[in-house]
What we know:
This protein has one domain (about 50-340): Aldolase class I (TIM Barrel), CATH 3.20.20.70. It is built from 14 helices and nine strands. The protein has helices spanning about 5-15, 20-25, 30-50, 90-100, 120-130, 145-155, 170-175, 185-195, 215-225, 250-265, 275-280, 285-290, 305, 325-335, and strands spanning about 55, 60-65, 105-110, 135-140, 160, 200-205, 230-235, 295, 340. The strands form two sheets. It has a six-stranded parallel β-sheet. Strands 8-1-9 form a three-stranded parallel β-sheet. It is globular, with a radius of gyration of 19 Å. The chain binds S-adenosyl-L-homocysteine. S-adenosyl-L-homocysteine binds next to loops.
Amino acid sequence: MNNAVKHAIDVLSTGTVPEDAALLSLLSCETSEENQYLQEKADAVRRQTFGNHVYIRGLIECTNYCRNDCYYCGIRRSCKDVTRYRLTPEEILSCCKNGYALGFRTFVLQGGEDPYWNDDRLAALVAAIRNAHPDCAITLSAGERSRESYQRLFDAGADRYLLRHETADKAHYEALHPTALSFENRMECLYHLKDIGYQVGCGFMVGSPGQTAEHILKDLRFLAAFAPHMIGIGPFIPAAGTPFEKEPAGSADLTVRLLSIIRLLLPKALLPATTALGTASQDGRLRGICAGANVIMPNLSPPSVRKNYRLYDNKIATGAESAEGLFQLKTQVENIGYAIVTARGDYPDIQN
Ligand code: SAH
């Protein structure tokens, strides 16, 4: 085994961030022996805190209206051929009810930045879910909002918030977003969320256009410093009708390797094996679990709208990644030595 790579993995396993050169060697390590070693270490660290448990989150894609125009995203404002939809509060509550019966104890409300969902409406929806399901965690993934808005939603009963930082490099951020969106504001949102008391998730796409190994190092250093409770990473996948439609997809292998690296960096983090990873590689999500991921987010949206929440091309939406496919997913996860559990799956040091 390459000594620099082994050294980097051993340093990471002691909870220390290795120097740049060592991390870089790890990012590019491609031999199966090294990857095997990395994965074993990451799996051991995960088992210390979580055993073989994999938490499930019911993902409800509430709206695909979006005021933003992120260059990578298939539901960006400028994509004219997207059939726009917005679930009603009743539909969302009914998704939660179905999910509850299936065993879900976390609901993730995700959507574009849809002005319809102002603070009054979103806070009322959160309160209604909180009231109907007092034993469940409510996670929001509704983009950038004011500190006051995040506070109101928290007070209404939201527990967690997912807001990927997308990239920790300002110039790269600007290459992925129009000027209306700023790196500083994204970061400020994340700090507000943490300060308010949310369990916070950030994350980035692997292989987004213009991303270099140095950018990924910055992402890893940012994660180590910010110490989020959750980290979502998945390969970039081009979306038709976007400025990046002809760009190559990110690597599933590198994503899997990064899951192990992030597991070692942040042993207690909740780390999903994402839909994008499952789309990029058929067994991607299972490989992600073996590499250190401990969360899966099956789709609880009404089947009729799923094809319209098209962040990227060929997004998987039926089968084991859907809520209806939960039984199939359970079997697949058991076959590789893990167990789907229905607990809320909060960050280990948080008391509820
Ligand atoms: N509007 C919300 C939710 C965004 S969708 C927000 O701003 O947080 C959730 C995530 O999907 C994004 O943060 C982005 O990292 C990812 N995503 C978007 N387009 C993608 C693409 N083409 N390939 C892979 N992931 C993508």
